Amino acid sequence: MTFDAFEHFADPAAELRDMRRLLKKGGYIIASFGPTWYHPLGGHGFSIFPWAHLVFSEKAIMRWYGEFSKDGATQFSEISGGLSQMTIRHFEKTVAQSEFRFASFEAVPIRKLRPFANRLTREFTTAIVKCRLVPRSERITD
What we know:
The protein is of the alpha+beta class. The protein has a single domain (about 1-50, about 80-135), classed as Vaccinia Virus protein VP39 (Rossmann fold). It is about 25% helix and about 20% strand.
């Protein structure tokens, strides 16, 4: 199981490789994460208003961050806990290039944006991603 972590992994592909190595035969991964990068608060603590992390450059946000934090971080990935700017598309691509496949996948919409949620808008209207990953070499079982 991995909850609220994929958007923080510096190298999600390496994490999936480690998960595969540790997974028992017949096992699977349950993953849930969010907010994704294009969510209104996808910048986590950097989202001082909706989509602030998309309106301002990373450099500008990190300069502001440096005013109250002395950790020396100059990129989102360098902050404590990291922030990998994980989008739904990037997550799907990372899984597609791994030894896993989706047994299930759900992009859970933001409640108030649900009427606008569809395949075209999901990057901006998804609250969290929930999925079950199984090794490509194994059958999907419930």
